[in-house]
Write a structure and sequence with these properties.
alpha/beta, Rossmann fold, five-stranded parallel β-sheet, four-stranded mixed β-sheet, 8 helices, 9 strands, globular
Length: 203
């Protein structure tokens, strides 16, 4: 059975990760998705087990202590992480999995599983557009938005550590998702992943 790959999508808040990942899952029905765990409170309209596994800080720390978290980060006072069980379940089926996680977590996964992980940083066209998107949510206070913008600058500075950088142009999320779909297809055709097929011809 062909081995599944881990595709990590990350980027600043407001880059449109959620929308693009949703489109990717519609385009590639077999694509597995890991629901991250977080200690932050749900936003209006969010559902436990769908948007995140919402849990207390105490419960998250217990999972971390027991080695049940693949990667994690602390962001704006809350923990975010990927449960090992979520990723292992999909990869065991030979399917690709997509992880929508923070930059710190992405680099952790890449370090742990370098041969099986492909990292993609998603960015907004520019800082002004990023700020417009964040303010357009209408869910966060000014001081939180300022923190997110400062954090965005720090995150984009780490783009050189990623395999790919994709711009999510305004009102062109489908095009962005298609670009990432092309990356997924291309990664499976790398020589090191096609070597067994090539070797058949060598007898």
């Amino acid at each position: 059975m062909k081995k599944g790959l881990i595709f990590v999508i990350s980027g600043p808040a407001g880059s449109g990760k959620g929308t693009v990942v949703k489109l990717l899952r519609e385009m590639i029905p077999t694509l597995g998705y890991s629901v991250s765990a977080t200690t932050r409170a749900p936003r209006p309209g969010e559902t436990d087990g769908v948007n995140y596994h919402f849990m207390s800080r105490e419960d998250f720390l217990k999972l971390l202590e027991n080695g049940m978290v693949l990667e994690y980060t602390e962001y704006c006072g809350n923990f975010y992480g990927t449960l090992k069980s979520e990723a292992e379940k999909v990869l065991a089926e030979g399917r690709d999995i997509i992880l929508e996680i923070e930059v710190d977590g992405a680099l952790q996964v890449k370090s742990l599983l370098p041969d099986d992980t492909v990292t993609v940083m998603l960015i907004a066209p520019d800082r002004d557009e990023l700020e417009r998107r964040l303010r357009g949510r209408g869910t966060e206070a000014d001081e939180v938005i300022v923190k997110r913008l400062d954090r965005a600058i720090e995150e984009v500075a780490l783009a050189e550590k990623y395999d790919y950088v994709v711009t999510n142009e305004t009102d062109r999320s489908e095009e962005c998702a298609n670009n990432i779909r092309s990356i997924i297809a291309a990664e499976h055709l790398r020589y090191r992943r096609m070597k067994d097929t090539v070797d058949i011809y060598r007898g």
